[in-house]
Write a structure and sequence with these properties.
The chain is α+β, with helices and mostly antiparallel strands. The chain has 2 domains: about 55 residues; about 100 residues, no CATH class. A 4-stranded antiparallel sheet has the order 1-2-3-4. A hairpin with a 2-residue loop joins strand 2 and strand 3.
Length: about 190
């Protein structure tokens, strides 16, 4: 009986050690991301937040105006979702590297286009030059359930190699729309 108690305690200790390890890793990630900002940038952000909380910012909009803007944005978003068929369900962004004129971010994006779910993972390199910002997509990885179709599989592979997000979204929109039409047609004949 005592061995069962010791086993339960050891399992609990192991679970707590695992949780501590995960929290430590998460803390290190957050700390690493915050070190990308200079002390000056951090102080400016703190001052801005303090001014906002003390009500020193001028030109604040009323809650009614903000509510109207929010409703307008929701209407526009709803229209775009119906028009394009895209519905994004999650997005995460992690800054990998940040220097004065270069930023590398890792993005994860998932959603559905009509009835086809998809997931994207890519790195975005933004470089700022003489009044010009350029962005380059790299390490693009696309996950879709409809990879059984060899043509779709070839298309996704070539899109991943080129890192061409615009072509992916345009083609996925058209393909998903016709995929939905084919699915409904086959259901009609069943």
């Amino acid at each position: 009986m005592d061995e069962n108690i010791y086993k339960a305690y050891e399992d609990e200790i192991q679970a707590l050690e695992d949780e501590i390890r995960l929290l430590t890793e998460k803390y290190e990630d957050i700390r690493q991301e915050s070190t990308f900002f200079s002390d000056e940038e951090i102080l400016k952000s703190i001052e801005l937040i303090q001014r906002e909380t003390q009500g020193e910012t001028k030109g604040r909009e009323s809650p009614a105006d903000l509510k109207a803007q929010l409703e307008s944005l929701e209407t526009n978003l709803s229209f775009l979702m119906k028009f394009t068929g895209f519905q994004f369900t999650s997005h995460s962004k992690k800054t990998v590297e940040k220097t004065r004129n270069r930023t590398v971010q890792k993005h994860r994006l998932s959603g559905k286009c009509h009835s086809l779910p998809f997931q994207l993972e890519f790195q975005l390199l933004e470089m700022q030059g003489n009044e010009k910002v350029s962005a380059v997509v790299s390490d693009l990885s696309i996950i879709m359930e409809s990879r059984e179709d060899s043509n779709v599989s070839k298309f996704l592979s070539s899109t991943e190699e080129r890192g061409d997000l615009l072509t992916f979204f345009r083609s996925l929109s058209t393909y998903a729309e016709w995929y939905e039409h084919r699915r409904c047609t086959f259901l009609h004949f069943k």
